[in-house]
Amino acid sequence: MASLSEHPTVQAFQARQPHERPPTSVDQHWLRNLCLESGADDVGFVEIERPELENERSHILAALPHTRTLISLVRRMNRENIRTPARSVANVEFHHSSHDLEDVARKIVAALEQKNIRAICPAVGFPQEMDRYPGRIWVVAHKPVAVAAGMGRMGIHRNVIHPRFGNFILLETILMEATIDSYSQPIDYNPCLECKLCVAACPVGAIGSDGHFDFSACMTHNYREFMGGFTDWVEKVADSKDAAEYREKVTPAESASMWQSLSFKANYKAAYCMAVCPAGEDVIGPFLENRKTYLQDVVKPLQNKEEIIYVTPGSDAEEHVKRRFPHKTIRHAHNGLRTPSIHSFLNGLPLVFQREKAADMDVAYHFTFTGQEKQEATIIIRHKTLLIQKGLTGEANLSIKVDSATWLKILNKKQNIILAILRRKLQLRGSPQLLQAFQRCFAT
Question: Region annotation Disordered: residue ranges (predicted)?
Fold first, then answer.
């Protein structure tokens, strides 16, 4: 075999004079023009060392090890397509806009590659790293990058609001190895008007007027045909002994909707928080001119729509629908948030916490997990708040000592809790009623 130096490819590379070296820094104006000419509606730049990205840094570097700059891209969506009660129209807008933005990002990455600058563009939304589910499935969180890059601020509905385009935008992030000569800074005000229209429109009450967000309520309904909702549907199919039993669990319209999601990309069931938001210089006009008309034309059609609302049984969301939207049909569903480890159990508690169920509680729990995952934790539920601490701190109203594998089986409905107590796999010191109260505070 000839030596490597005699290979034609190596000789062609060596013949280049001078050798092409990747630039260590890029002109900000050139890069900005490249992004806008490629189709972005706005763009900002953040250095990897920015303190706001501390929680993202390790994930970013795992995807592109020598990342130095993050490029935050904004793509504007057509507002009326998002606002209409015809959610098929809204979903087509979401999906087409995400495809457009991914094409924009690919053009930019290709242009950077021509300059010998390494860069990657993770997905705008889906697909994501589903082998990690139900943990962190995204490569980079676009929202904190966008905020750090001056592309807007988070509203109480947990959407980024651009100062001009409002929340009718999609976000993308490009990871780039080169630095640039000037970086963007966050904007100095929040475009959110705190009008609370998102609070009024959300069919499951996921957005509290005080800024609280019920993650599980949003995921159970809005993401019914994604991830956990899809696996819940699959289990309904698997658990049905025949077609007749399946039809008792799932209506023809629901089956057809799932087919539509599988064929034409998964459909969001609501996203009403985005639809009704009047913030943004290009958006706010009709709201300022005549708020009554804006409410009648934009908010009321979504509130009055007769539709199925998916909730976990006994959840705050279920009570919200009964109280605020009695004309909407409640369907019980599992949110798909399975618990594979004690670590994920403790980290996931804030996501499924039902604060209305905890309104009258003031209870401290000591958990001692034995067996494969040894761990101690103190969980305090006090007047609609949840506090989780490592170790056993203070006095407990109820102490729970349990084999970790047994606890995970109980959470995932594979183990009867009474049987676990009888077999002393689970030991209580305190009133068993407090354990029942604990379970009611979390949507499963």
Answer: 1-25
Domain 20-180 sits in CATH at: 3.40.109
User: Against a cut of 0.70, is the pTM above it?
Assistant: yes
DSSP 74-91: EEE--HHHHHSS-HHHHH
399-440 pLDDT, tens digit each: 999 999 999 999 888 888 989 898 889 999 999 999 999 999
Q: 152 is written with which tokens?
A: 């807007």
Return phi, psi of residue 38, to 5°: -80, -10
- C-alpha 439/C-alpha 149 separation (Å) is 41
**CATH code that applies to domain 342-440:** 3.30.1050.10
Look at residue 179 and give its three-state secondary structure: strand
Beta bridge partners of 308: 329
- Which residues have C-beta within 8 Å of that of residue 214, sequence separation ≥ 6? 204, 205, 206, 207, 208, 316, 317, 353, 354, 355
- For the segment 244-262, what is each residue's pLDDT rounded down to a tens digit? 999 999 999 999 999 999 9
Alpha-carbon distances, residue 215 vs 81, 308, 310, 419 (angstroms)? 25, 19, 14, 32
Show the CA angle centred on residue 172, arms to residues 158 and 283, nearest 5°. Answer: 55
Contact between 400 and 367 under an 8 Å Cβ cutoff? The reply is: yes
Domain ranges of the chain: 20-180, 197-332, 342-440
Q: Rounded distance, CA 225 to CA 221, Å? A: 9
The C-alpha atoms of residue 47 and residue 34 are separated, in whole angstroms, by 18
Q: Is the C-alpha dihedral spanning 253, 256, 258, 260 positive or negative?
A: negative
d(CA 30, CA 71): 13
Q: What are phi and psi of 24, to 5 degrees?
A: -85, -20
The full 3-state SS of 181-220, as one line of letters, equals: CCCCCCCCCCCCCCCCHHHHHCCCCCECCCCCECHHHHHH
Helices 215-222 and 227-239, packing angle to 10 deg: 60
What backbone torsions phi and psi does residue 46 show, to the nearest 5 degrees?
Answer: -130, 135
